[in-house]
Amino acid sequence: MSVLSPAPLLSPDSLEEALRSIGAERYHHLHPFHRALHDGRLSRGQVQAWALNRYYYQSRIPAKDASLLARLPTAELRREWRSRLVDHDGDAPGTGGVARWLVLTDGLGLDRDYVTSLEGLLPATRFSVDAYVTFVRERTVLEAVASSLTELFSPLIIGERVSGMLRHYDFVTQETLAYFTPRLTQAPKDSDFALAYVREHARTPEQQQGALDALRFKCSLLWTMLDALDYSYVSPGRIPPGAFRPS
């Protein structure tokens, strides 16, 4: 019987390279649904379904971050992570990323009360997002921080998304897509901090493997959400009972 060799301890640079290779292979900018979204091959109703389901992800990010904030051991770390709550929840009503996402759903013609009620969510969206919040709450701080490293790759997808949607959809405007402009600076700041934390604190092969697996988990979660959208609204177009149906 063969015995697997233990994983080697990677240098911080090699660990970062391995993390970045996960994004290159698994980040959801490669998903066919996103390719269709950015290339103008979706109907208005399909874009609405994407925005409505993504709202649940956006709205639960502050809960995810708050659960991690409560477990961070130093004031320095808590101050750094706290900025994420302000970025998403804002510091006053109508500010922050969640509020800007509702501007997007408004601009696409979705009723705001319907969006925030979550009545039209795909089951897979709810299960996937809830699984992410649970992961961050229950796994180690290192794994929770590492799972956020999809932000390393988000500027790429944001650039493609904004330019592609403005070019291809006459029902989309710069104002509709205002959510994405601050993320071009927020995401790199957040990912720089998270990457430095993982490089410093993943000190054993087991910790490094945990960080790599956490990023794989997050990539798989985002991919699963798009799988559900593609199956329900594109091909074969089997919308589950109770989920949003484009008019």
Automatic annotation (TrEMBL):
<comment type="function">
    <text>Ring cyclization and eight-electron oxidation of 3a-(2-amino-2-carboxyethyl)-4,5-dioxo-4,5,6,7,8,9-hexahydroquinoline-7,9-dicarboxylic-acid to PQQ.</text>
</comment>
<dbReference type="InterPro" id="IPR011845">
    <property type="entry name" value="PqqC"/>
</dbReference>
<dbReference type="InterPro" id="IPR004305">
    <property type="entry name" value="Thiaminase-2/PQQC"/>
</dbReference>
<dbReference type="InterPro" id="IPR016084">
    <property type="entry name" value="Haem_Oase-like_multi-hlx"/>
</dbReference>
<dbReference type="GO" id="GO:0018189">
    <property type="term" value="P:pyrroloquinoline quinone biosynthetic process"/>
</dbReference>
<keyword id="KW-0560">Oxidoreductase</keyword>
<keyword id="KW-0884">PQQ biosynthesis</keyword>
<dbReference type="Pfam" id="PF03070">
    <property type="entry name" value="TENA_THI-4"/>
</dbReference>
<feature type="domain" description="Thiaminase-2/PQQC">
    <location>
        <begin position="18"/>
        <end position="227"/>
    </location>
</feature>
<dbReference type="GO" id="GO:0033732">
    <property type="term" value="F:pyrroloquinoline-quinone synthase activity"/>
</dbReference>
<protein>
    <recommendedName>
        <fullName>Pyrroloquinoline-quinone synthase</fullName>
        <ecNumber>1.3.3.11</ecNumber>
    </recommendedName>
</protein>
<comment type="similarity">
    <text>Belongs to the PqqC family.</text>
</comment>
<dbReference type="InterPro" id="IPR039068">
    <property type="entry name" value="PqqC-like"/>
</dbReference>
<comment type="pathway">
    <text>Cofactor biosynthesis; pyrroloquinoline quinone biosynthesis.</text>
</comment>
